[in-house]
Every structure is written in structure tokens, then in C-alpha cells.
Write a structure and sequence with these properties.
It is built from 17 helices and 19 strands. It is α/β, with parallel strands linked by helices. β12, α12 and β13 form a beta-alpha-beta unit. α2 crosses α5 and α5 packs across α6.
């Protein structure tokens, strides 16, 4: 432990797949993981592995004929059983030394690092990520484990690093103690990184959890839970209960013994969780905490002083990386009129260069995650054809999967649906502004406030943008995706959530409660 902490935190490096040895290693991992597809996976309730007849069938979105796994589906009776196990386990886990809890995360990070390509390969098949996107997901999961292990130790030493104001005759101490049992409801788009971050933050603080993974990526969630078991995490700290969001999610959210809900997903579901959690159930003795990372309608603003080649590259990367299925995806671009036509041409050229195909073959663009997303995105494209001028895309792409061509609409008005509503797919809406001030106002005309980017070479304009573009993560002269743990604490304003700042120094506070103890000193001390 001490040797680890002597080294400052640093982000896990991304794999360079231009290197032949890394290409071969990834191909080997893909072959290994492919041979394991189609297995059955149990629930994990304490030390018990529970197979159920009712299954969630996870398929490869890039090849709909391929089953990734059959995941047992929890009934409400089994969810209640898991709750009771988590409650019982909490009584011992909360007393486990902070250093010991942190060590489980450090060990998990080490083991995941050793098997990095295997975790990434499973996301290639189950989530439809290309090699680089999957590798970045795994790297971020490693970062979360390492970072939160360090953070809980820092919190435990808060009286040394941030001492309370001394009072003569008293010994005062502030301690961060765990909350209780929490519900972890992660998304499918970062099925390893966000799951690992949400879960590890909660448990390292001394809480126990019930994990209800997103159905499209329930197999990678199981792989993470199995990893935590392998490093020796006590049974019952993490309980794995896949199931219906409407049934299992609502049951956990309304349960009187649920102390907190950590959710990442859509605005609509997040608001529903907030409403349900606000009601006090019979036997409930606390106000439930809701940590919610919701949607985004993120945008990039470009003024006439910007480097247009850099801006075009950032816009295309932000809009179409992982097929636009990121809450940070730059689904809007607002461009000053004097450079509007020139930048449209550059964006169109770059978009048309994107090749689409099987993620396992490492095409730049792959499928969207499932049929539901596929159909929703196609509906929005039809709306876009009425609201804007189609520059490229707008069609289904070839392949035995959920493939949609990267789509760009120009001349989109600020109040258009495709400029206001989160599509979560490869669709970019571009609008024009008379000047840079109008462009920033255009950007702010949204109920969301997650990420944004401003391209300019004028420092006074940049200073204005830094103060006035209303979002949780604002970038200057770079893309609006790709937040790194420790460097870019992540979370948004308004309908984008509770500004949780995942991967930052404040995140663990949401899973603890601060207890102040004050003792009068004996005479003569």
C-alpha cells in the first residue's frame, strides 16, 4: 500500500494499436472472448450464484445473429433477498479498515490491467465499440479503481491534511462514515468504466450495493463483479441483480432500506428516480440521496478566428465517436456566419471518410447498441429532414447489425427538435450565428448543461466563453468528449444531472456522511 501511495496518480495509458504486438494481442483476446460467447450467467447474491429460467439475452449489435450471453433475470423476491444480504453485510463491511477496502480496488486495478484486452474485447462484441473506444473504456475503469482507492485514504486522513479550527480544551475530529445500502444503476454506453466507477466509489467508502446493470451490456457487468470476487472482496458487498428497469429499478428506488441511488442514464429515467426517491416509504428513517448523471445536448461553438481544420476534426470526432452514443457527444455545432460555409464543407468531407463495419474488425464506426436505439435514431433523422438541410448520411448502413450512416444536418434553428432533444446516435445538427456572442447564446439555449467546447484564437472571447457557456465541463480549442479521471472531473448542470463530478476530489463525499466528534479534554491536558 505505501509503495502505491508514494507514486502520484496517473492515468492508464491508451494502447497504441499501430504497434504490431498490440494488434496481435488484441486479436488474440478477441478470439479468446469469442469462444466464450453464448454462456449462461447467474445472479450474484452474497455467496450464492443463482440461475433463473428467465433470461436477458445479450446480442452483438454488430452481428445480430451472435448471442453474447444469457443473463439470469432477477425477480422481485430475489431482489429482496439481495437487499437483506446487503444489509447484513453492511454491518461488518462498514467496520473494515479504510486501507483494507482500498486495497481491494488496487488489486482489481492491477488484475484488470493484466487482462486489459480481454475486457476490451468483450465490449467490442457486446457494446459495439471499436478497439480504441473499448480500450479507453477499460483504461478509465482502471483509473476509477486506482483514483477512488487513493481518495478514500485521503478522506480518512482529512484531520491531518485539513485540520479543524483548534479550540482550547477540546479535541475535535471530523470522520467520513458510510451511508448504508445503495442501488447502482449504470448505463450501457460505458459498460465497464462507469459501472466500475459508480460501484467502486460506493463500496470503498464502506457501503454495500445492489448492481442492476443495463440489459444490453449485462455480461461485461458480470465480468466486473467476478473480478471483484476474484480479488477477495467479501461476499455480499456487491450483489448483481440484472432485471427490468421498471420493476427492479423502481423496487430498489422505493425500498425503505435503500440509502442512496447512483444512476447514470437518460433524463426521463433520472427524473423518475428522483420523484420516487423523494417519497418516504414506511419504515424509512432517512432522506435518500440521488446521484444522477443524465443526458446532454452538448455543442461546439466556432468563431471566425478559430483554426477551422482543428475545429472540423473536433466536431466530427465529438459527434461520431462511438456512433454518438456518449452523454458528452457533440451533437450540436454552432458556427459564426462568416466561416459557416467553409466549415460545413470541411465537416462533410471528414464525415464522408468515416468507414462503417464490424467493431471486431476495428472499423472507425460501428453499430448503435440495439433495435430500440436504432429505430429511435431513424425517427429523429426523419424529423431532421424536415428541420434542416441534409449534408450527408441519413440512411441505414450495410451490415447484419444496427448500422446507421453518420448524419449531418445544416441550417438547423435553435428551437428545432434535433437541436434540443438528446438523440444519442450519429446525428449532428449545425446552426449558424451572426457573431460569436450570438453563437454562445445559441449554445446556452438548452435544458441540458453537460459538456461544451469553444474554438477561438481571441483571448478576450475565450475568457467570456469560460464564464458564460453554462455547462459542467467546458473545453477550449479541443473536442468536448474524452474526460480523464483526475484531470477532468465529470458532471453537468441543469437537466444533465446533479453535477456529481465523477473522477474528481468531491465524488466520494456523496457516498459518505460527515460525523463531527468533540471531546472536552481532561484537566491538565
Amino acid at each position: 500500500m505505501s509503495n502505491r501511495l508514494e507514486r502520484p496518480f496517473s492515468n492508464e495509458p491508451f494502447t497504441d494499436f499501430e504497434l504490431e504486438e498490440q494488434k496481435q494481442a488484441m486479436r488474440a483476446a478477441l478470439i479468446k472472448v469469442k469462444a466464450e460467447l453464448g454462456r449462461d450467467y447467474p445472479l450474484v447474491i452474497g455467496a450464492d450464484k443463482v440461475m433463473t429460467a428467465d433470461k436477458i439475452v445479450s446480442i452483438n449489435p454488430g452481428n445480430k445473429s451472435e448471442v453474447v450471453g444469457n443473463v439470469s433475470k432477477a425477480s422481485l423476491e430475489l431482489v429482496e433477498r439481495a437487499m437483506q444480504v446487503a444489509l447484513q453485510t453492511f454491518e461488518s463491511w462498514k467496520k473494515t479498515a479504510v486501507a483494507e477496502r482500498a486495497e481491494y480496488l488496487f488489486k482489481a486495478a492491477d488484475l484488470m490491467r493484466e487482462r486489459k484486452h480481454e475486457f476490451s474485447a468483450l465490449m467490442v462484441y457486446e457494446a459495439g465499440k471499436n478497439w480504441a473506444e473499448a480500450d479507453a473504456d477499460t483504461a478509465e475503469a482502471i483509473d476509477f479503481l486506482d483514483f477512488y482507492a487513493r481518495e478514500v485514504i485521503r478522506l480518512s486522513e482529512t484531520n491531518t491534511h485539513r485540520p479543524l479550527t483548534p479550540i482550547s480544551g477540546e479535541t475535535n475530529k471530523l470522520t467520513y462514515i458510510p451511508l448504508g445500502v445503495g442501488a447502482i444503476i449504470p448505463p450501457w454506453n460505458f459498460p465497464l468504466a462507469i459501472l466500475a466507477g459508480m460501484t467502486s466509489a460506493a463500496i470503498v467508502c464502506g457501503n454495500t450495493v445492489l448492481v442492476k446493470p443495463a440489459s444490453p451490456t449485462a455480461v461485461i457487468a458480470h465480468k466486473f463483479v467476478a473480478l471483484m470476487e476474484e480479488v477477495g472482496l467479501p461476499s455480499g458487498v456487491i450483489n448483481y441483480i440484472p432485471g427490468s428497469g421498471a420493476e427492479v429499478g423502481d423496487y430498489l428506488t422505493s425500498h425503505p432500506k435503500t440509502r442512496f441511488i447512483n444512476f447514470t442514464g437518460s433524463k426521463e429515467v433520472g427524473l423518475r428516480i428522483s420523484r420516487i426517491a423523494a417519497d418516504t416509504a414506511n419504515g424509512q428513517v432517512w432522506i435518500k440521496r440521488v446521484v444522477a448523471e443524465l443526458g446532454g445536448k452538448d455543442g461546439i461553438v466556432v468563431d471566425e478566428t478559430a483554426d477551422l481544420d482543428q475545429a472540423a476534426a473536433a466536431i466530427v470526432a465529438s459527434a461520431f465517436g462511438f456512433q454518438g452514443q456518449k452523454c458528452s457527444a457533440g451533437s450540436r455545432a454552432i458556427i459564426v456566419k462568416s466561416v459557416y460555409s467553409e466549415l460545413l464543407d470541411k465537416i462533410t468531407v471528414l464525415t464522408n471518410k468515416i468507414k462503417i463495419g464490424l467493431p471486431e474488425d476495428n472499423y472507425p464506426a460501428g453499430p448503435v447498441v440495439d433495435r430500440r436505439s436504432f429505430e429511435k435514431i431513424l425517427e429523429y433523422i426523419e424529423v431532421g429532414k424536415q428541420e434542416g438541410r441534409l449534408l450527408t448520411g441519413g440512411t441505414i448502413a450495410e451490415g447484419n447489425g444496427f448500422y446507421i450512416a453518420p448524419t449531418v444536418f445544416a441550417d438547423v434553428k435553435p428551437d428545432a427538435r434535433i437541436m434540443q432533444e438528446e438523440i444519442f446516435g450519429p446525428v449532428l445538427a449545425i446552426g449558424v450565428a451572426e457573431n460569436w456572442l450570438e453563437a454562445i447564446d445559441f449554445y446556452n439555449n438548452t435544458e441540458f448543461g453537460l459538456t461544451g467546447s469553444y474554438f477561438s484564437s481571441e483571448e478576450d472571447r475565450i475568457a467570456y466563453a469560460l464564464e458564460n457557456m453554462h455547462c459542467g465541463n467546458l473545453y477550449i480549442n479541443r473536442k468536448c468528449t474524452g474526460a480523464l479521471v483526475g484531470a477532468h472531473p465529470f458532471g453537468g448542470f441543469n437537466m444533465s444531472g446533479t453535477d456529481s463530478k465523477a473522477g474528481g476530489y468531491d465524488y466520494l463525499l456523496q457516498f459518505t456522511q460527515a460525523k463531527l466528534t468533540s471531546r472536552k479534554n481532561a484537566v491538565g491536558r
